[in-house]
Request: fold
Amino acid sequence: MVLDSFRLDGRVALVTGGNRGIGQALAIALAQAGADVALLGRTRPAETVARVAALGRRALAVPVDLATAGPDDLAGAVSRAADELGRLDILVNNAGIIRRSAAVAHPPEDWAAVLRVDLDAVFQLCQGAGRIMLSQRHGKIVNVASMLSYQGGIRVPSYAAAKHAVVGLTRALANEWAATGVNVNAIAPGYIATDNTAPLRADADREAAIRERIPAGRWGVPDDLTGAVVFLASDAARYVHGAVLAVDGGWLAR
Ligand code: NAP
Reply:
């Protein structure tokens, strides 16, 4: 039955940045669908661990700072998750940062930090997971893109560059890996109420300008993204490769 193909019972997912915001909602949704979850991040994800455990699923915290971890550290973290939870079926590259300043004044350290966390780490985690998934001939990778994978945004040049690149990377990996049973796709969230967008929502004029441009008439919340991640992580998406699923209240349609 079709709804059974959305179930994730017995699967293991690795989610980055699952301690708060969108990543927390995605991790809990994967657990609700049946998956055990490894939470890779730099902050102890105590609340998410407790909420996954309350669903009867296993939760494993994998402490890693994506700003400083190198490719070997990330490959090691992926292997550790797979070893401790017994397998690896799903990778969700969610963790991300944003630095806001005018392009001419954008500090080189902000450029480097954003590219490191939002792009380099995504690629290196895909490599680590890909080695496992290609050898077992199945796996699902879901990268978190952005509206700024399509648009330039305002005063966020490093973020726009990184998020455009995440889509290119998603398509490149999908082309290489689809025939081996590994699905690589992305979710592009619209404007979602999290810490990431707190400065936008604190500016009343900017908040209103954004809200009024969203056809759905409201900001998104992290739970708005949960159906998309479960779908892309499941057998229901078995023939979906290299797609970018916008969950944006209609922002891109306008
Ligand atoms: P958030 O609330 O700021 O959460 C960001 C997450 O990334 C946190 O878990 C954070 O961990 C983690 N992270 C940041 N730097 C890290 C590092 N060096 N090492 C490990 N983990 C790190 O943001 P969010 O809105 O949930 O964003 C999640 C993803 O969605 C990001 O990729 C973002 O670009 C994307 N996105 C968000 C929106 C939106 O409107 N909110 C729209 C489009 C795309 P700590 O708690 O330890 O900092």
Helices lie at 21-32, 46-54, 71-85, 108-136, 157-177, 198-202, 204-213, 226-232. Residues 108-136 form the longest helix (29 residues). The first strand starts at residue 12 and ends at 16.
